[in-house]
Design brief:
The protein is of the alpha+beta class. It is built from 18 helices and 27 strands. The chain folds into 3 domains: 189 residues, Aldehyde Oxidoreductase, domain 4 (2-Layer Sandwich), CATH 3.30.365; 144 residues, Aldehyde Oxidoreductase, domain 4, CATH 3.30.365.10; 252 residues, Aldehyde oxidase/xanthine dehydrogenase, molybdopterin binding domain (Aldehyde Oxidoreductase, domain 4, 2-Layer Sandwich). The two termini are 35 Å apart.
Length: 688
């Protein structure tokens, strides 16, 4: 089963990207306006920007995608957004390549609902496979209308008139053999503004007369507001207080004044029932599996019965936070019944729809703009900060900025789902003959194995869960690859076959074989044996049209925690658009993957997050980063695929396998440093 059954989804558009537990976390938004829909989570998490609004085709007119002004400046429009993945540069290259124009002549307008074509959102590694071809078609059609070599001789004053009636379907993009701009390492567009601090993020936005807002949050997850004495806050000069049902917030001339006003409110909350704890999380997830269809197990049982050796293991995955450098932020400004919002979101049109529904106004009255934003990792699909700012701005009659505190971001944003994964398998003569894989709660992405196995059963099981959860870079593919590639090493040891050889023996997919062999060759796999405090691990995988393999070297020095000293990662995502940019993506994924692999975990108890700040929540630091070597495989015969997610998936299993090779201890939990909680079948882990 390769999809996730229907869940409760919080949304205000055609699809949303996170869900809440049955007992509800709607109060997390401060109450008020919530729209609930029932839809498949696979659609909610994977629907991308290739469709038009609500299923209608994207606009075919060239003018919807690009304009050329009288001086030869080209404006290209896309609903995709830039959150650090450098898509602004690759999309600029796509337009420059097909137009024959210099990259410096092109400016992208991204994520502006008043100017760009509708786009479902920036997630699922969809920008490259969907938007690059779209912009190439539009630019190629423009080139053919304007004429070959026209850029040097064109009368730009009439260029837009010539393009006015053109359609993108008439364009014929260049083959990869003729690329001159694509396939090269064009420097990052707007890179100077970013490194010098000239770029303004959502949290930097200022409007004339702007106030600063704060929102009252529940003291515990399921707590409900009974009453709120706001008299002291209302008595403060220049302070606006909004108390509407479960929503209570303040707006003031300075952030400090807003904080003082919020602190002056005296709320009373209900006492919620006893809640789950991170100590018993995995036991509770298995205990609370939701009812579903039970498939026929006879097929897998037949394979297991025929296996010479059988093996089973359980793996656990902790909740982790997105921890973006820039927390949620929004500035809202009303002009009559028209609303303009600047906010950091991966879904500007989704936020536009949320705002329109929240305030019962047409979507045409709402404009959402997304400044290139300080990271997202799948964590900024929702528009709660925008709604909060807009509610306060409407009451105050002035623009209002909301910037979540770090504690709010850690507590009230959604998390990467925790999960339990159970694997049963059978091998005969070094061949896997049976494979049974069950994922509880963390998700179905990357669920299906690419290994050649005759008897397979792979299923995702939704469960009740305690925390707000949703998309994270790679979705559940990281969890599923951790379990699968760890189990592959266990089967290799059971079969007494070297880990790389065992994988290749059970693999027919040539692209998968190629990344494994490329990583192993660069790493020098097999040239040195593990031991004497040094361990080696390997893992590979596939997701969203891309293939990845990782080799890791681990040192265990006497009296010290194990330390990752070297990582080699081979990556193949079809034709490469920008080699330096792609290398940066892979390196960034490895660094971020260190956290989830080694130490990131949300600890919670009695309705509260216990590590809701960076002083308690461990993320990778400079001293944690090993030497990273990236091997890029350029397949110009294949269409480019996205690279934002897949490179993160195989670090954790490679490190776990390296730990086993040097210590003989098999750790089956993410993070690897977390000791098995009560009720888990996972062995304890050393401190890393």
């Amino acid at each position: 089963m390769s999809y996730e059954p229907e869940r409760y989804e919080l949304m205000a558009g055609p699809a949303y990207n996170f869900s809440f537990g049955r007992r509800g976390f709607f109060k997390a938004l401060g109450g008020g306006i919530v729209v609930v829909s029932f839809l498949a989570k696979s659609e909610a998490q994977e629907s991308g920007g290739g469709r038009g609004r609500f299923g209608h085709p994207l606009p075919q007119q060239i003018a919807a995608w690009l304009h050329i002004d009288a001086k030869g400046a080209v404006i290209v429009y896309t609903g995709k957004v830039e959150v650090g993945q450098n898509s602004r540069t690759s999309l600029t290259q796509a337009a420059a390549e097909e137009l024959g124009a210099p990259a410096g002549a092109i400016e992208l307008v991204m994520g502006d609902t008043a100017r760009t074509p509708f786009d479902m959102g920036t997630f699922g590694s969809m920008t490259t496979p969907q938007m690059v071809p779209q912009i190439r078609r539009a630019a190629a059609a423009a080139r053919e209308i304007l004429g070959p070599g026209a850029w040097e001789t064109l009368d730009f004053a009439n260029a837009d008139k010539k393009l006015a009636s053109g359609v993108t379907t008439s364009g014929h993009p260049k083959p990869t053999s003729e690329w001159k701009v694509l396939g090269t390492s064009v420097p990052k567009v707007h890179g100077r503004q970013i490194v010098t601090g000239a770029h303004r993020y959502a949290s930097d936005m200022k409007r004339p007369g702007m106030l600063y807002g704060r929102v009252l949050r529940p003291e515990r997850f399921d707590a409900q507001l009974v009453s709120a004495d706001t008299s002291a806050a209302q008595a403060m000069p220049d302070v606006t207080v909004v108390h509407d049902g479960d929503f209570t917030g303040v707006a003031a001339p300075t952030p400090h004044a807003a904080q003082l006003a919020l602190a002056a409110i005296k709320p009373q909350w209900t006492s919620p029932e006893t809640q789950w704890s991170s100590k018993t999380l995995f036991t509770e997830l298995k205990r609370n599996v939701e009812a579903g269809r039970e498939p026929d197990a006879g097929f897998i049982e037949k394979g297991l019965a025929e296996a010479a050796r059988k093996h089973e293991s359980t793996y656990t995955i902790a909740y982790i936070a997105h921890a973006p450098l820039e927390p949620r932020a929004a500035v809202a400004e009303w002009n009559g019944d028209k609303l303009t919002v600047w906010t950091g979101t991966q879904r500007p049109f989704g936020v536009q729809s949320e705002l329109a529904q929240a305030f019962h106004i047409p979507e045409s009255n709402v404009r959402v703009m997304m400044p290139d934003t300080g990271a997202a990792y799948g964590g900024k699909h929702t528009g709660e900060a925008a709604i909060e700012a807009a509610r306060l701005a409407k009451a105050a009659g002035k623009p209002v900025k909301i910037v979540w505190t770090r504690e709010e971001e850690f507590t009230w944003a959604y998390f990467r789902p925790a999960g339990v994964i159970e694997v049963r398998s059978g091998v005969t003569d070094g061949r896997i003959v049976a494979w049974e894989f069950h994922n509880y709660n963390s998700g179905a992405s990357g669920l299906n194995t690419m290994y050649d196995i005759p008897h397979k059963r792979e299923e995702f099981h939704p469960t009740k869960y305690p925390l707000r959860q949703g998309s994270y870079r790679g979705l559940a593919a990281t969890a599923n690859h951790f379990a699968r590639e760890s189990h592959m090493d266990e089967l290799a040891a059971l079969s007494q076959i070297e880990p790389l050889e065992f994988r290749l023996r059970n693999l027919k997919d040539e692209r998968f074989r190629a990344v494994l062999q490329a990583a192993a060759e660069r790493f020098g796999w097999g040239k040195r044996k593990a031991g004497a405090g040094i361990g080696y691990g390997i893992a590979g995988g596939f997701e969203k049209g891309s293939y990845v393999a990782t080799c890791a070297e681990l040192h265990c020095e006497s009296g010290q925690a194990p330390r990752i000293v070297r990582v080699v990662e081979a990556f193949e995502c079809g034709a490469i658009l920008n080699p330096d940019m792609l290398k940066n993506q892979v390196e960034g994924a490895v660094v971020q993957g260190l956290g989830g692999a080694l130490f990131e975990a949300i600890e919670f108890e009695n309705g509260r997050i216990l590590d809701a700040r960076f002083s308690k929540y461990r993320v990778p630091r400079f001293r944690d980063v090993p030497k990273i070597e990236v091997v890029l495989i350029d397949r110009k015969d294949l269409a480019p695929a996205g690279a934002g997610e897949t490179p993160i998936m195989t670090l954790a299993p490679a490190v776990a396998n390296a730990i086993y090779s040097v210590t003989g201890e098999r750790i089956r939990s993410m993070p690897l440093s977390r000791r098995a909680p009560a009720g888990s079948t996972v062995s304890g882990a050393p401190a890393i």
